[in-house]
Design brief:
There is one protein chain. The protein has 5 helices and 21 strands. The protein is α+β, with helices and mostly antiparallel strands and 422 residues long. It has 4 domains: 88 residues, Beta Barrel (conserved putative lor/sdh protein from methanococcus maripaludis s2 fold); 100 residues, Elongation Factor Tu (Ef-tu), domain 3 (Beta Barrel), CATH 2.40.30.170; 61 residues, RNA polymerase II/Efflux pump adaptor protein, barrel-sandwich hybrid domain (OB fold (Dihydrolipoamide Acetyltransferase, E2P), Beta Barrel), CATH 2.40.50; 123 residues, Helix Hairpins (Orthogonal Bundle), CATH 1.10.287. α2 packs antiparallel against α4 and α3 packs antiparallel against α4. The radius of gyration is 53 Å and the shape is rod-shaped.
């Protein structure tokens, strides 16, 4: 009974209030319009801009050197750390020096012996002896001639026996024969001495060459860096055998400053660049974009092209150099090369995010003077940083929606604001 009375009371109070409330309203929810969505726009303007193109690239070391041994021996010391920067001429390995030091001492001893032999030959002892014998024979010849001359008038006057004259003449003939023999001996000694001097001189030169060779071998037993650069891991450890004929190098050295970069152009791109006033043969400055999308801090320059088109890919390889004083770049890294392709005059640039792509066609959303949204097809060209070059579809002064594209529906009204409040 109490519940029924309370229900009637509540219903009697609430119902009139609801009726009054419903009758007193002057508008409905259907008559309330939401505010126009806010979008960010840029105004298309014609301008001159340089055109850059990007190409996949890879670094490489043009002058990489394999370090090899010039003599055989066991490694006693390794004097570098893997990955360190080394200078040309810096010692890298030391082999067992004792065999080469011994060979050098033996070669120096041979040189001393050869030098002594040469000095002995140059004194011409044999020739001097032969010349002395010849002089003695010539003196005897003079005496024999004088004996004949002295006896001849005495025999004619019969003051001396004829036998004495015959003996004197026979002695003269014997002495003449001895003189001729001694003259031949002198000539023979002269020729022999000359040959001996030349032979010993040749031995001296050969000994000098042997000393030089053994000294070089001793020097080669300390293996030095042939160039400056960054050294790799050692493929032969301390205690290992080094041989001149080994197909495996001891290590490698890569020069990093400068670093070389190769990339490829299609035939059409190649001819396009060749037609420009600044040809490919000139020094173009390039930018390198690393794999983390950050630009390399040093500019590079184009060095040239290879001498033929790759028939398999229809491309031609270009090579460039980049200063690399910090050694950041290593051979084999992948990157992108940005190269100036030319200049465009009086073109329109719009942000990339303003362009919508669907089924191979591109369009942008523009805002008219009365803030109405319209879809407008465009044709874009090169990409310049974060912008597209618009070749067709936009005119200077048109406003293009950059942010809030998802809220803008063609035919509706929007509240446009310049990007960045400009």
């Amino acid at each position: 009974m109490l519940f029924n009375v309370f229900s009637r009371f509540v219903f009697g109070v609430v119902l009139p209030t609801a009726l009054v409330s419903g009758c007193s309203g002057t508008t409905t929810s259907a008559d309330v319009r939401p505010p126009a969505p806010q979008v960010s726009v840029v105004t298309a303007r014609a301008q001159d801009t340089p055109i850059f193109k990007e190409y996949a690239a890879q670094t490489f070391a043009r002058d990489m050197v394999e370090v090899r041994g010039r003599v055989d021996g066991y490694i006693e010391q390794r004097l570098f750390q893997t990955g360190a920067d080394v200078r040309a001429g810096q010692p890298l390995y030391v082999l067992d020096l004792r065999p080469y030091e011994g060979e050098l001492q033996r070669a120096k001893g041979d040189l001393a012996q050869s030098t002594a032999n040469q000095e002995f030959a140059e004194h011409q002892v044999g020739l001097l002896q032969a010349q002395a014998d010849l002089a003695q024979a010539q003196a005897n010849l003079v005496k024999a001639e004088m004996d004949v001359e002295r006896l001849q008038p005495l025999v004619d006057q019969k003051a001396a026996p004829h036998q004495d004259l015959d003996n004197a003449r026979a002695a003269l003939q014997a002495v003449q024969a001895i003189v001729r023999a001694k003259q031949a001996s002198v000539e023979q000694a002269r020729l022999s001495t000359k040959a001996q001097i030349e032979a010993t001189a040749g031995q001296v030169e050969s000994s000098k060459a042997n000393v030089l060779t053994t000294a070089l071998n001793l020097e080669y037993a300390t293996i030095r860096a042939p160039i400056s650069g960054r050294i790799g891991d050692s493929l032969v450890q301390v205690g290992g055998l080094v041989t001149r004929a080994s197909p495996q190098p001891l290590t490698t050295i890569v020069p990093l400053d400068v670093i070389w970069v190769r990339f490829k152009l299609s035939e059409a791109e190649y001819f396009e660049y060749k037609r420009q006033p600044q040809t490919l043969s000139s020094k173009r400055f390039l930018q390198l974009i690393l794999s983390d999308d950050k630009p390399f801090p040093h500019e590079g320059r184009l060095e040239g092209t290879v001498n033929q088109i790759d028939s398999k890919t229809g491309t031609i390889e270009l090579q460039a150099t980049f200063p690399n004083p910090e050694g950041i770049l290593l051979p084999g890294q992948f990157a992108r090369v940005r190269m100036k392709a030319g200049d465009r005059s009086n073109v329109i640039l719009i942000p990339q995010k303003a362009v919508q792509e669907m089924q191979g066609s591109q369009s942008v959303l523009t805002v008219s003077a009365d803030n109405k949204v319209a879809a407008q097809p465009v044709v874009t060209g090169e990409r310049i940083g974060e912008n597209w070059v618009v070749l067709q579809g936009l005119k200077p002064g048109e406003r293009v929606i950059v942010e809030g594209v998802q809220k803008a529906i063609p035919g509706t009204t929007v509240d446009p604001k310049p990007v960045g409040g400009q």
